[in-house]
Design brief:
heterotetramer, A: alpha/beta, ten-stranded mixed β-sheet, globular
Chain lengths: ~220, ~220, ~220, ~220
């Protein structure tokens, strides 16, 4: 086995943040994707959208400044930047479904080689289905980036030939950031943009359930 | 002189009867009309269908309403939360019916209801479990699901300021579903933190015009 | 011929105004219906809606107070009452189409006995079609009242068995106010509520293109 | 630092090319972006499709644009006005194509376009000339017409205040089609009477969030 160190959650978030350009309207999904905000360049205007009716989200407030009416889609306390705005859910999802969000960063259970994503429901008998805005974001955003571990806790590939879990949206993922690599989903298939130092292409392929290509 | 301000939350529940469909505002606790829900529990109407984004938190508001046994069915986008154990238990023991609707579709179906559309084609959920059995259509190369409006007998929402004509403003992200629920129900009851004189709200800043609001209840001391 | 005086435009408007109750949301169509506003009781809260995004319309302003941004659907200068509000066309037509307007008062070329209304287009070769909000109002308002002359300038009945002109909306008119009578459109047919003094039922019938009933 | 404020109306027209579909705000003259239209005339792009509620008044704004010969087709609800003689002449001599759409349907089709719906069923115009050849459906006993979204390459609108992120407020009934046109076009150009500092607009009072606006042009001295 080669000698490499998987990226931490923060390091993955940093990779995503570096790929976000000034002027983009971005929705960061609940969980790991939310961390991307911490690594966005402070000197650039990047607009964070939260599906519960906020555009221009700022960092978390001091504890004393928390306001129960100012939360994000993950129900965490947030702040609003100068120039931010509030609106109702109809307008918020018009932004999403209407293709006005340039980029959405989502977590995922599985991504298929054609861009299908599963991230809402494991479908086991005792699970309670709960979708939130996941399906709207998957089909609506201009680009969808996924953050996830490259393999599951059991070592199973999460990038697969075709989904095993219930689908969230068809052919919507454009890029996957894992603890091991950054992979584009293209017309030509899964193209590895970048890998962690010390990892070989063959080893990455062995942890991936679909054929990878070198750029 | 028309005055939509109702003295107490209990009085505002007078019209709500068994079997009603009720939209309840809020995203988690933000914008959830807690005092109206308390009054609805006291009203004790049975066999209700509730439409709300979530299915309640802890032992407050919407969660308590579910616990009261008044709710037959809930339509929501995200029932499962870390503190939704009341709903979870009811669901797992088959005591409540659940319809999961994607959040944007939930909003769009209520908007369709409030604006008199008969149905809409939305791309959300195409090809998923949540579109199973639904009519679909491909338009200009994109796949859509046919969704029908949600219209309700009542809406209970939380706003910030209100006046005697029922005009409302909201506070920050507590606006969430309030304006679209107000439009999608036959009888909208809004709890507000403050009732102001007619004319005190700038006509440019009114978010929900009074035409969509039937009763306004002031909850003293609420933010 | 019996001895009677047809109602003036103002008198018809007054009849309609008397039938409008406190708390009603009312849209008054362009032309004659606009006059109804002049006869509404000043001590009652009645909400006038204009489809260009105004609720709580007040009377015309003094000339010095005219504001090009504050007009009604007929493009006349208006004022806004305390408690009035502005909104965009999407919300305005949600109010109309969604059944939130209690009453709409429209002019008409023809009304059929089943409530069909023609009021948007004469359909002659040189006419340019222009519909505005007429079709939305006809189908959307909870009740539709029509104000029109009982017969055309050529003496032809304007209340007819079935429309001769292009239809605006099907089965939507509830009541007709003419210079001669007030007529309800009911499941049982056209029911005369009231006639001008001195007019006989038979004479009214002779000027009407469909069978009338006495209440 | 992102700055959507463009120096002149002419500069803002740079992207507009022959064959574009352009939404133009306004109800009569209220909310009509007169200076942007003047710049569009100067741009002299040909074969345009214009969507606007009316078809111009007298010899100003939209009427002048039609007179310039740049417009192939107009989609509107009410072309015929007492002073729409420029349009009337073009139409009668077959020099412009007209699609008449009921006013509420015009708004709803643009809202569908802006919010990503594939089509909507609306009750308006059922059984009329304006629904001829269109698909219909009866839902819960009501008859509906299937209408498709209007999406455009550009929107030219008039707002009141704007900031460098493109946030907008409007003035009274001049709001009319502005917010829904901004959402329904790929590139929205807004003329404003005043550009204010970022943060000067109360986030509760912003009517069009900057996400829907791409260029802001300040017209000095305009109300």
């Amino acid at each position: 086995m080669s000698n490499y160190t998987p990226r931490s959650v923060d390091e993955i978030a940093k990779c995503v943040a570096q790929d976000i350009e000034e002027g983009m309207y971005v929705n960061l999904g609940i969980g790991q994707p939310t961390k991307v905000a911490d690594f966005l360049p402070k000197d650039k205007d990047i607009f964070l959208h939260s599906e519960n009716g906020v555009l221009g989200m700022g960092p978390a407030p001091e504890e004393a400044d928390r306001d129960g009416d100012l939360i994000n889609a993950g129900k965490q306390y947030i702040t609003l930047l100068k120039g931010g705005s509030y609106f109702h859910h109809g307008d918020s999802f018009a932004m999403i479904r209407g293709g006005h969000i340039d980029l959405c960063v989502l977590g995922a259970f599985e991504v298929a080689k054609n861009g299908d994503i599963a991230n809402w429901f494991l479908g086991r008998p005792k699970d309670i289905p709960a979708v939130g805005g996941a399906m709207d974001l998957a089909v609506g955003a201009k680009k969808v980036y996924v953050i996830m571990d490259h393999v599951s806790k059991n070592g199973e590939p999460k990038i697969v030939e075709s989904l095993n879990l219930p689908i969230t949206g068809e052919k919507c993922v454009n890029r996957i950031y894992t603890d091991l690599a950054v992979i584009d989903i293209t017309e030509q298939g899964l193209v590895v943009r970048e890998m962690v130092d010390g990892l070989t292409f063959d080893e990455l392929q062995s942890k991936t359930g679909a054929t990878l290509r070198q750029p | 002189m028309l005055n939509k301000v109702t003295e107490s939350a209990i009085d505002a529940m007078n019209h709500i009867n068994d079997g009603a469909t009720i939209l309840i505002g809020g995203f988690g606790l933000a914008g959830q009309p807690a005092e109206l829900i308390d009054a609805l529990i006291e009203r004790n109407a049975k066999d209700l269908t509730i439409v709300s984004n979530n299915a309640g938190n802890g032992e407050t508001g919407l969660a308590l309403l579910l616990k009261s046994g008044c709710v037959r069915k809930i339509i929501c986008s995200f029932p499962r939360q870390h503190d939704s154990y009341i709903f979870d238990d009811l669901y797992r023991s088959g005591k409540i019916e659940l319809e999961v609707v994607p959040q944007g579709t939930l909003a769009a179906r209520m908007q369709a209801g409030g604006s008199g559309l008969g149905a809409i084609y939305t791309p959300t959920a195409y090809g998923t479990l949540l579109a199973e059995g639904k009519e679909t259509r491909t338009i200009d190369g994109v796949n859509y699901v046919l969704e029908y409006p949600i219209k309700a007998d009542f809406a209970l929402i939380k706003a910030f300021q209100g006046d005697r004509w029922g005009n409302l403003t909201y506070r920050k992200a507590a606006r969430n579903f309030g304006p679209i629920m107000a439009a999608a129900s036959k009888h909208t009851i809004a709890q507000v933190s403050e009732v102001v004189e007619l004319g005190a709200l700038d006509p440019e800043h009114i978010i929900t015009p009074g035409i969509f609001v039937h009763e306004v209840v002031c909850i003293e001391g609420d933010k």
